[in-house]
Amino acid sequence: MIKLLSHLAFVAITTPNVEESTEFYEEHVGLTVTDRIDGDVYLRCWGDYYRYSVIVRKGDEPGLATMAWRTTSDEALDEAARRIEAAGVTGTWSEKGVGIGRSYEFVGPWGHSMTLFWDVERHAPQGAVASIYPDRPEKRSKVAGAPRQLDHVTIAASDVDAFAKWYNDVLGFRIMAKTVLDEAPISVFSVLTTNEKSHDLGVVLDGSTRAGRINHYAFWVDTREELLIAADVLMEHGYPIEYGPSIHGIGEQTFLYYREPSSLRIELNTGGYRNYVPDWEPNIWKPSLGSNNLYRNGAMPMSMTESFPAADGPSATEEGVPDELKAQLLNPYAQHGQG
Ligand SMILES: [Fe+2]
């Protein structure tokens, strides 16, 4: 298969209170608003190359409206759409979107909207925010620990291996690693990538029957020091840190998780490896090996198993999963013993 996708370009998330979420992204994450169109707010990190990387949209519940990848060419966009439809999924073409050209949006087998496009408007700042350095899309943010750019999105799906296989078979995502429970042969987490990063798409096991949920999405900061400063500043300003700072075993990124006002989880990442091996075979991790916490010394809070919208939210279907199984399945990051 030719390489179809190049990188994650933007995510559109829903929140019950657009203004409250927007203010948080501006004041406490360090994003800037670029557009307000039809109720949607478009934001960017200072180092994003295109016009925006986050769309904040009004919704009844926190959730994922779509996640968008740029293809490698205009031809690759047509080929990706052809492959998706050959796999039995029918999407919708749009001639033009905000800051992007024609795009193809489809809902994957586990209920997640994905948008693909090639033509895109590059960010071209004028005046005070224009950088003095040619490669920088904009001046570095003055907000402490402000991320350089969007990094990845991690969704929840009821079958981690089948999800990874579908996105590998159809769109060429490389499967980089997965976590299987210590106690049972159940895959609870997997990471996929379209480039040299360890992942730009993650999947956690969803024990609910509610389709299309998101666990979190992540931004990139250049250094661990910036991530630590961001953690410090969040704490000082009354925004609790859900988990971290620590280092993931899988991917080896330093991580920090916290919540935006809608309760949706966001993450800061830095460090980690680059992997260019085209025929990479995914390694299998166990939680006890430190898949989530390299140091194997910190239990992950159970709150980290929440995905969005809530499994029992107003649009949810009957869960139908026994409680004891649910507790096990919904806890992909847990430490099992010292390991
Ligand atoms: Fe993540």
From TrEMBL:
Protein name as catalogued: Catechol 1,2-dioxygenase
Annotated ranges, domain VOC: 7-119, 149-271
SUPFAM superfamilies in the cross-refs: Glyoxalase/Bleomycin resistance protein/Dihydroxybiphenyl dioxygenase
GO molecular function: dioxygenase activity
Organism: Naasia lichenicola
Keywords in alphabetical order: Dioxygenase, Oxidoreductase
A Pfam family this chain is assigned to: Glyoxalase
InterPro entries reported in the protein's UniProt record: Glyas_Bleomycin-R_OHBP_Dase, Glyas_Fos-R_dOase_dom, GlyoxalaseI/FosfomycinResist, VOC_core
Domain of life: Bacteria
